[in-house]
Every structure is written in structure tokens, then in C-alpha cells.
Amino acid sequence: MNKIVIILLTLLIISGCSSVEEAPVSQESKQENKEQIIKEEVVLQNDKQGSSFNTKIPSIKRISTNEDLKVGFDSVYTEIFWNSTENNVPYNFPEVHFGEIEIGDTIYIDWSMIKPKPSEVSLMQVKKHSETVVESKVVEGEVVNIKIGENELGKQYAVQFLWKDGKTVTGKSMLNFRLEEE
To answer: May I ask which residue range the UniProt record assigns to the signal sequence (predicted)?
Structure first.
């Protein structure tokens, strides 16, 4: 029994001493560390210039006629492009599962959590499964309320978010939703 304890203690001491040794640092790993630091500085500088994009999606909620707030209204949010110039590829509005509503309800859309703030926001009525915009209007502020009447039922809408550098569009995303009566 004593022999086993002595052998285990000896192995423990030897293993503890061997882990204290330092591994030599090569010139290559020092160079890799410098390159990593430079890359991190570039990323931080770009973030300060506003190139980062907060992917939190705008919230879309239904407020029923009896003032009940219903969260989780069906919608599709898509980032089309970011931090590049606009391409000429047409955007096909996706087929969206309808959100159930009643006449008199209000749809509340809030994009205050998006960073950086979009330069321009438009509410559009679109033809289903196409790239055709029936009607479009620029929205001021960070929220939009749509009061539901008979004219809004069965239609698909999109909220377009644009980021601009002067007149050049550098970012675009869309929030799509469709309205059907319960």
C-alpha cells in the first residue's frame, strides 16, 4: 500500500514540474498576433463609422378593437443588401402567411430598435408574388399605425427601410405582411 502511495505522489510531482515549462514563442506566432490586432482595430474603426448593422427586426403587433395587444403578427423581414451600392436586381415580394385581423384593429410597426437608423422608410401596398408596387408613401418617425378598414383586407404590404450616403442607397431591408379577416 505504501509503495502505491509513494508511486502516485512521485508521478504527481513529476507531472506538476513538467507543466511549468514554457513553450518557445516563434516569430511566426508573434507576427500572427500583430496581424490579428490590426484586423481587430480595422473592424472597430469600421464599426465607429456606422458600418455595423443591428439585425433586430422591427416589431409588428396587432391592437384589437377592444384595445388588447396581440404580439407575434405574421411577417417576413429581409435584409436585401447592406454596406454596398444598390444593385438593379428586382426585389420579388415573398408570399407571406396572412396575419389575422378584424375591421377596426390597428397594426402597429416599430423600428426604433434598428441601428443605425434608416434614412428613409416607406409603406407600400404590393401585388402578391411580384415586384409591383401599387402605392407607396414615405413614413416619418419610428412607428407606423395602420387602421384596418374593409379596403385593407386581403392586401399585402411592405415597409421598406433605406440607408443612404448622400443620394446613394447603401442599405435596404423589407418587412412584408398580409392582412386577412379572422
So the answer is: 1-22
